[in-house]
Amino acid sequence: MRSTTGWQADGPTKLHEVPISRRALRRDDIAMRVDFCGVCHTDLHAVRGHNGEDVLVPGHEFTGVVIETGPDVTAFQVGDSVAVGNIVDSCGVCTMCTAGQENFCREFPTLTYGGTDRHDGTTTLGGFSREYVVRDRFVHPLPSGLDPAAAAPLLCAGITVWEPLRALGVGPGKRVAVAGLGGLGHLAVKFAAALGAEVSVVSRSADRASDAIRLGARDVVVSTDPDSAAASRDRFDVLIDTIPVAHDLAPYLRLVAVDGTLSQVGYLGAVTVETMDLLVGRKKLSSGGSGGLPATTAMLEFCAAHGIVADVETLPSARVTEALDRLERGDVRYRFVLDLSDLDRK
Questions:
Q1: Which residues neighbour 140 within 8 Å (Cβ) at sequence distance 6 or greater?
Q2: How far apart are CA 98 and CA 79, in angstroms?
Q3: Do residues 332 and 54 make contact, with C-beta atoms less than 8 angstroms apart?
Q4: Residue 97: CA atoms inside 13 Å, Cβ hemisphere, count?
Q5: Closest CA to 38 of 195, 147, 194
Q6: Roughly what angle, to the nearest 10 degrees, separates helices 320-329 and 41-48?
Q7: Which of 4, 157, 278, 304 is deepest in the core (most CB within 10 A)?
Q8: Given this structure, which CATH class describes domain 158-287?
Q9: What are the distances in angstroms from CA 334 to CA 41, 180, 258?
């Protein structure tokens, strides 16, 4: 076993620094030093829903450096810069896995934290820690030129919006709207603009119009303004909905063009949709979750080629509780990232 340190939730409000045991390396494992880990809404939901009984160490979008490799590892060497996302294993043989969609593994993928290890049945502990041990196949080289702190959110927020944008053929000539300008939304704007689409942001107010334009949007549709919403009715070929809380989809479906698609990736709970909102215009409702290994590699290469990273506020990991509290209030533009180097202080 390997010993390291991390931040464990003892209940729904606070995390504490604790010793963590990592498994001894299997033949195809790498051990990495975690330098930066993004703070996702999933982390917030996990902590707020924690009963204090099970072991919970959040964090599933992180970058760092390889510090040891198993004997069968050939793709990585000690000192390599690497990145890990929100899945760390899958069955590898089902139709989804063989198609490069390990995120949709028929046996369900092993999650980076709160998952069940496929070999020994232990609960996985996440990247709010100084070291992580992971199967090499689920590790990505971090392209040179990408800032490791700002790149960390690409491994969850980034790939979550990248896959539907690519699956829906976003590129030149496509009109794309992004609902919600947060951790996912601001990356969706950057990606869609870099892919050559005409991009708009849909927001409840015009307060972030200047930010939307800076990120690559052409304009802002104010969903609470009847005139603004009416002017954009049936306008967009693709609408990426990144709003992380329950909301009515009808106003957003009205913005989708004939044969267009609303892809909901922010809120993953139950929704109600009126069939007429889909029927009029042959509109489609879709979704997506994370991404497969080939798509994640392609996204990182695209980001390196286009200089795309997340807009982040980096905090010492000792301020993780503050980060979660502020995220709950929406007080972040646009992603918190924890610097785990402060765990070395002892």
A1: 82, 83, 84, 85, 155, 293, 296, 297, 300
A2: 30
A3: no
A4: 16
A5: 147
A6: 100
A7: 157
A8: alpha beta
A9: 12, 11, 32
| Lookup result for tokens 């007429």 | 276
Q: Where in the chain are all domains bearing CATH 3.90.180.10?
A: 2-156+291-344
- CATH class of domain segment(s) 2-156+291-344: alpha beta
CA atoms within 13 A on the CB side of 128: 29
What pLDDT does 53 receive? 83
The whole-angstrom separation of Cα 2 and Cα 186 is: 37
pLDDT digits (tens, 9 = 90+) for 297-327: 999 999 999 999 999 999 999 999 999 999 9
Long-range contacts of 250-258 (CB under 8 A, 24+ apart): 250/274, 250/277, 251/223, 252/179, 252/202, 252/223, 253/277, 253/278, 253/283, 253/285, 254/229, 255/177, 255/202, 255/221, 255/229, 256/281, 256/283, 257/175, 257/281, 258/234, 258/282, 258/283
Residue 314 near residue 339 (C-beta atoms within 8 A):
yes
Q: Taking the CB of residue 188, how many other CB atoms lie within 10 A of it? A: 35
Domain with CATH 3.40.50.720 in the chain: 158-287
